[in-house]
Amino acid sequence: MTVLKYTYWQDDGMWLGYLEEYPDYTTQGETLEELQDNLRDIYQELTSGAIPSVRRVGELAVA
Q1: What domain of life (predicted)?
Q2: Helix (H) or strand (E) holding 32
Q3: The model scores a pTM over 0.70
């Protein structure tokens, strides 16, 4: 099982959010559970290659 971090908030009665690794790809849901389902769906699309030129967040160590 993969565990992903996501950021979410409520605005005008809708739940909005994005996966921390893919902040450019937001989704929404009428409930928090629906938002989580939509985040799972977008993760599958982003990692399957269905969406071209996916931008990601990484870490870089510097001295």
Answers
A1: Bacteria
A2: helix 32-48
A3: yes
